[in-house]
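User: Fold this, then the next.

Assistant: Folding the first:
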Amino acid sequence: MNTTKNIVFKRKSPITKTIFGIFIFAVGFISVLAGGFYGFIVCGVSIFFLYKDGSEIDLEIQKYRTFIEVLGFRFGKWDDLPEIEYVSVFSTTESVAVRALSAEAIVKNDIIVLNLFYNGNHRIKAYSTTDKEDAFKIAKQIADILKIDILDATEAESKWI
């Protein structure tokens, strides 16, 4: 059985934001090649459109972190993973605000979230997906490695697995 020792959750960026960031970076890079100092500033501005945030849990070394990822490089401070009591799998709705000039729209998506609970009600968001089967697969791997129980809160009646 292939067990995951490193769990990464990255918030998805809208494709238009990514394309806009790549375009701005390209304009800045071309400006730098042409000898313009301001191209560095434009490239720096593009990072605001290209970064992703998320969390990472390394089960092998028992550490976790929240991070910002820019161009494939992750930045964040590792903390010790506390004594996890159980992993919870539940359904929720994620809202994302999409803005363009003076217009704004709220896009809602149904997602499945895995939280690791410790010290009663403290939690660490471990993973998020739209696929229920994938969520339970990851939850089982975490539960097997940490020797903890799984709480299925995807239905109206929660149950222990």
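Now the next one, as you asked:
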Amino acid sequence: MKKLLFILIPAAAVVIIFYSLSGNSDEAYISKVADTRAERVRFLKTSQQSPFTQFDLKYKPLSFFTIDPSYKVRANLERIQSPSRVMIQSSDGTSAPYSKFAYASFKLQGQSFKLLILKPAGFGALPNTYFTAFADDTSGESTYGGGRYLDLQIGKSDNIEIDFNLAYNPYCAYVSEYSCPLPPAENVLPLRIEAGEKDYNH
């Protein structure tokens, strides 16, 4: 069967992954993340674009780590002055083009890290919407072995928010017929990120 491409086109109906929450309490923040997760579940269960609907598969409940505000971090954006195109390997052995946009530097669990932020190339790339795929020490254990994704809304500011509580699985975690980009080598982080979506129990 021909592989289907997992196209990274964020949509509010699928998942809203960015909040400006400064000044809000942890309770309000946790409620907003919970609402985002509920919206993703609703999409996967009911949308005609859901991978479960596309392949006529029974939806089984998603699993998530407990929402932990400490996994919402501030990051300094180091924009790449001359953006270059890079081919990112996909789960089916093919590769797809992305533009290298920036590195996001942040601290988590007392350590310093960087994530390469990418811009999908070609049709469907939305203004100010960027993407990163990452893996960590939970990958292949409690989370999907092919890594997880974060979508980022980035404007003019070089100070952004990265919220690992909003990390989500590619469609390949649910249906192997999709072709999903894998994390680039620099985005394999040497720590356990026990936040966001867990591995899918088929």
